[in-house]
Each structure stands twice: as C-alpha cells, then as structure tokens.
Model the fold of this input.
Amino acid sequence: MQIDVRVMELLASKLCHDLVSPVSAISNGVELIEDIGGSVVDEAMKLIGESAGHASRRLRLFRMAYGRAGSEENIAIRDVRHIAEQYIAGGKITLNWPEDQPATALVEVKGALKTVLNVVILAEEILAYGGAVSLRDVHNELGVGCRFEIVGRSAQLAPAIQAALEGTASVEELTPRSIQAYVTGKFAAYFGLKLMHDHSIPDRLDISLFIQTQPP
Done:
C-alpha cells in the first residue's frame, strides 16, 4: 500500500492535534506547581494525572490503529476492545462493543481489527455533538462482517468525507477533517475488506465491513 507524502503530513498533523491538548495540560500542571506551590499541588497533580492518562490512552490506540502492531496476526480481540473502550471513555460518546463480536471469521482476517479501530476513530469525529456507537455482527448475502451503528445529532458523512472514505477524492483534495476517512478506506481495501455505509435514517450512520478477498 503506497502512501502519498501529503497523506503522511495530514495524518501526522492529526496525531499532533489530538495529542497536543493533554500534553499541554501536563505542562500547565507542572508550571502551576512551580509558580504557586503548596496550595495548588493537589489540584495540579490531579490535572497532570488525568492528562497523562488521556495522552497514554490515545497513544495506545494510535499505535494499534496506524502502526504495525495492528497488523499482527496474533492480536487479541479483548485487547483491541479494551483499547477502544478506554479511548472513548470520558468523552461525549458511548461505545457498545459486545465481548463476542465481531465474528471469528472477520477477526481472523489480518488487519481487520486495525480497520475496526479506524472506524471507531472516524465515528468519534463524526459525532462532534455526542452520541453512541454500537458494533453488531452481520451475516447476510454480502457475507460475514460487522456493522457500526453511529447514532447522534448530525451523524452523517459530509460530501468531502464521504469521497475520502470511498477513495474517490484526490490526495490534493484531502484536509485534516477528511484524512481519517481516507486512511480508513485505504486500510479496508488493503486488507481485503469491503467497506459500506448507509445514512438513510436521520441522525444515524451505519458503516459496515465485510470479508471481500484474501488479505495480503
């Protein structure tokens, strides 16, 4: 899978943007202790602890979603689910990921869980006003797969994000807002998964992954 330099730049910008807030909060907590001292130590340490935990959770997810670790064949579904749940915890959305899902056939496809994590990240971006994400097994005429039911205010794909997800957008058209959709679609295609979406119901977007071809 070849990645354009612009794609790498946009993805790097996204990672830095997502991490700068908790890391800056840690720095602010340290400065608070240095400047004021004793009376604010407890408050500052709480800020540092919460921010460090937030940054750590995001780093674990990014390592699995974008790095080589997410492509390993021995990756455990319980570990991936735990990483996703921790990433979502404390935010404006809830994640319902049953322990017995997705189906074993999908889990055994190399890179499938990496792609699932990328859908989770995309879902969080789509639900800017908050909402819920639920994972469901799917067995139909299209094959074996899973569906993410993304529910919340304005849960839909803007035209530019839809084009990025479908792979019809040119690299020059990509922006920091559409880069996650683009890499999600690229991972799905690379690992032999068919990605589909449906937003026919107001305030609900379904994104599905199906086993399509033999993965690399």
Notes: Residues 163 and 169 are 5 Å apart (CA to CA). The two ends are 10 Å apart (CA to CA). The helical segments are 5-36, 41-66, 77-88, 104-107, 112-126, 159-166, 179-190. The longest strand covers residues 131-140.
